[in-house]
Amino acid sequence: FLGVMPAYSAAEDALTTKLVTFYEHQEDSSVPSHQATVLLFDPRNGSLKAILDGSVITAKRTAAVSAIATKLLMPALAEVLCILGAGVQAYSHYDIFMELFTFKEVRIWNRTQERAEKFADSVNGPVRVCASAQEAVTGADVIVTVTMATTPILFGDWVKPGAHINAVGASRPDWRELDDELMKNSVLFVDSREAALTESGDVILSGAEIFAELGEVLKGTKPALPEKTTVFKSLGMAVEDTVAAKFVYDSWSAGN
User: Fold this and answer.
1) 7: domain CATH number?
2) Spatial strand order in the sheet of 80-84
3) Are residues 50 and 166 in the same domain?
4) Which range marks the domain in which residue 207 is found?
5) What pLDDT score does 167 carry?
6) What is the dihedral of CA 38, 43, 45, 47, to 10 degrees?
7) How far apart are CA 79 and CA 210, in angstroms?
8) Average pLDDT along the chain
9) CA distance 57 to 20
């Protein structure tokens, strides 16, 4: 697939387009399944100002949004972080979650245990590699799913009541990471209702009701409900790339 994600932010005075290639089955596993480039334009005249590494921007802005959701929605006492998946997004989520939160234990599971062990060996801090997804999830306060799964790998009867889940994978209408029980028995937050109802298999196939967009919680028009079991379904928005790209460009221009 080749995806095109254009956006304009009046607040940032920024105009961008992100180009994303997605190759599902790769013989060369050293090449990421998703690769991206962000083009930053001058909104006054359309001139191209910069070409940026969209893969880095995507990884960091996605993890940043998950961190915002987690700050708002996680239980008051959150000690155990679980990450399902060991790809690029697992690393970016780990980095920002370790910077912002104080988890006492971090667990990881990946379909290929070798990649989970590589992850644990390469990050700064102790990570427990789990033999199964259920082992990793049981008792976890915050769960991050960043997999290439097309059928559920996280089940409601495993999840601790009051836990918070950031569901980042399964970005197509026929793909799943979370089962029906978890989707229907959790309070569901999304980044975009429109996107979730057309792109997220977890939302579409479960028939789960969307409680709020994350922006509504940030604006104070909807409550966060951290005492409940919560799911944040992340699909990503082009404006996030625009703001991030402008931030990087402004920092570079200022010599920082």
Assistant:
1) 3.30.1780.10
2) 128-129, 105-109, 80-84, 142-145, 164-167, 230-233, 187-190, 210-213
3) no
4) 58-237
5) 98
6) -20
7) 27
8) 96
9) 12
Neighbours of 209 (CB within 10 A): 10
Concatenated DSSP letters of 182-208: HHHTSEEEES-HHHHHHH-HHHHHHTP
Closest CA to 85 of 60, 63, 111, 67: 111
* pLDDT for position 152: 98
Query: Are 210 and 108 in a shared domain?
Result: yes
Same-domain check for residues 40 and 162: no
Q: Where are the alpha helices (DSSP H) in the chain?
A: 54-73, 88-100, 113-122, 133-137, 180-184, 193-199, 201-206, 214-219, 238-253
Judged against a pLDDT cut of 80, whether residue 54 lies above it is answered with yes
**Side chain identity at 33, as an amino acid letter?**
S
Q: Which residue shows structure tokens 């008792």?
A: 139
Residue 27 is predicted with a pLDDT of 66
**Distances in whole angstroms, Cα of residue 33 to Cα of each of 1, 8, 20, 30, 39:** 10, 27, 10, 9, 20
Same domain, 109 and 163: yes
Distance, in Å, from the CA atom of 232 to the CA atom of 96, rounded to the nearest integer, reads: 17
What distance in Å separates the CA atoms of residue 145 and residue 168, rounded to the nearest whole number?
6
pLDDT of the residue at 153: 98
193-207 pLDDT per residue, tens: 999 999 999 999 999
Give SS3 for 122.
helix
CA 23 to chain centre: 19
Q: Which long-range contacts (CB under 8 A, 24 or more apart) does 216-219 make?
A: 217/72, 217/73, 217/189, 218/68, 218/72
